[in-house]
Amino acid sequence: xxxxxxxxxxxxxxxxxxxxxxxxxxxxxxxxxxxxxxxxxxxxxxxxxxxxxxxxxxxxxxxxxxxxxxxxxxxxxxxxxxxxxxxxxxxxxxxxxxxxxxxxxxxxxxxxxxxx
Amino acid sequence: xxxxxxxxxxxxxxxxxxxxxxxxxxxxxxxxxxxxxxxxxxxxxxxxxxxxxxxxxxxxxxxxxxxxxxxxxxxxxxxxxxxxxxxxxxxxxxxxxxxxxxxxxxxxxxxxxxxxxxx
Lengths: 116, 119
Prior knowledge:
The complex is a heterodimer. Chain A is mostly beta strands. Helix content of chain A is 0%, strand content 48%.
């Protein structure tokens, strides 16, 4: 079964508008971590934001915020005031359990295109 | 901080030859390194987990004799693609697990990736 599901293969957003990228996850652990990465065409993985399963408040990092709905097992990324440079692939990832040297498991990604 | 230097960035090799990809941690000790493969327009798929000084653990379906991983020191992990074939052409990227007190990248850092093309 897929651990991380990103249902939007591609998204378009107008410059300066906000956009939400969807991510749902599947785990039976109580302790886990959720990540969002941006991957431009160069291939590097740029860390954006992190949410721990026990964090009560939604994580925010500048223009990025994570809409964490634990009961629904969703961790959507919200990008406010989109910029042309935001055009890239975006991956949602999970680490479970919370501790230990466990690898990240990635979703299939969403390609975001920002239109001028 | 917490930089992983990955080389080469891209490589073209002939079918049947071997290619070595290096991931070097510059300012920390990488006890655990993860190796991922990413085909065009697809996600990152975990190939193996390596721990310094011990044998790597490979994911199901990954040929350990073909993808040799060596993690002989706390600052260097290598992936060697042996007898490469065109179907091995892909983007390979390493990721290091940071220490428990690191806040960088929420505990993970990535190399910049290697684009392998086998002709």
